[in-house]
């Protein structure tokens, strides 16, 4: 696969790993948060952590749109789908996310709700056109990456005067969430030394929106691609910034990211969406100006208005540590449900649902390392 | 001359007709459907007797029996259809025991309204597959259900085979240091199906690998004999599920090497696009074998000498591990678990 295999070359990886090992200060520790679940997935799937020195730790952040959606919003989606007039269209990962009282969209579908998995907003639009007697609601979720396609679908629906299409908007914003994590960091035991920023978000918004992280919080950021070599190179760039006493936003993903991003995509988003005053994130609580809603000009396509949705906050399972794990304050293995009551087959928390969730990635790919390491440490002592 | 008029038997309008409830009623319409569609396609002495069962000569050796249901969507896909798949799948279940498949039966559950032309096409494909494999379909059944109660057509096939004396392959027989071999590239069938199901076009046609593997397994048994411990066709859940099942049943672990597992570039690219892992994607014409390590080279040569095993590869070894983990050295140089699939593989959001 041209343009993919190049970024998974084991010889190059060995070279970058050797550079990281040579450049880290053995007396220091380096804690880097990869904000995005895509990075968590790549790190786990390719075994990147095996190739890092012991004093470089990767902290899995909240950047999985499925993981950060609060229980109350999934309850809303289930209520919506249970309306016999409604066909709810959604991305597949969301189907298994636990809602209140053990419910999920998958269970709602089995009970008779018309819930359909789609690959794009345009699939939902096509269903609305093909079935004019149904109220087709697209459950929109995701960071800045998936927001422009939702904006386009809403504009198309308006252009086609589709009366039976609406969007249940749950689009959230990356830089604001990053600020919430950094602002709450004083409460956490071990601070972060740098952040790996998601490249796909920056292809839309550019690198500039992260400059506050360097300027106000004094932490370096490297915007990184999602291939394992991208991630390793980004880690090396962070190590170098720290060793040189620098603190800036650097761009590893120069093949697609610019400082200012994609102006057209930003215009489309601005035309259709505006900031919500506040939005609840799983793990972060209510975060001001961290999510989007439809502007008045497109209000007719807002499912919340059309169906009178008023979200009622619902609590996570009290034993579930997803909140602390999403903030990077705890590791999946710090949760007493991990791997016993909470597994990918029976997820108790959202981090165990999506393959990009910290717990699911660690369970699927990394859990053998814990025991191997424990064994090695026991042998050494 | 008789005064009683004999009714003129009109052939089914296969080109334009559709299955209706009368075709499952047990009456004349059903008899015509069976005669014109299934008997024509499967034609053999047993079916021509029109009995409710087939009388078979006693077989020497131990009997192996299996049954399987086929509910694939879409019914027709690049490289095959539900008909040939239902023949290949059941033959392979028997072949994985090291047995020789002898007879098949087939049961059809057809949805009212299903096009007779499609049914004929499926039956002809089954007939071709069974003749090519040398395994006749000797008994069958047809049911028609109301519209909406099935998805076109469901097929169940059962198979009987014979096992040579002394051969005993089983999923609990893998031992540490045994070699793990596969017969070819992983993920072709699942990606071929998905490319049609989701209307995704990848620029190149990805064909299902659906095939009857009893010729290949016979050659493997001849080459490796007792050194062969387990054979398994990695269908649903792919190679990952097959390895995890065997790890638990044999109470061992596996250490495999991603670099050694063949995956066609177009399959790898499609999986990349969909966010899927080819190790979890279904195969219908591939097998995995575990054998004593000293027999690995001989077995590999025998596999590569067969048309369905040309790309055979040794991909790893059985290891001692009370946790029954399937571990893999990634192509990138790191390590990871290849775990059971949780639910179904779902494409990621971003």
UniProtKB/TrEMBL annotation, chain A:
GO BP terms: protein maturation
Gene Ontology terms, MF aspect: 4 iron, 4 sulfur cluster binding; carbon monoxide binding; iron ion binding
Keywords, in A-Z order: Iron, Metal-binding
Family classification: Belongs to the HypD family.
Protein name according to UniProt: Hydrogenase maturation factor
UniProt organism field: Methylocystis rosea
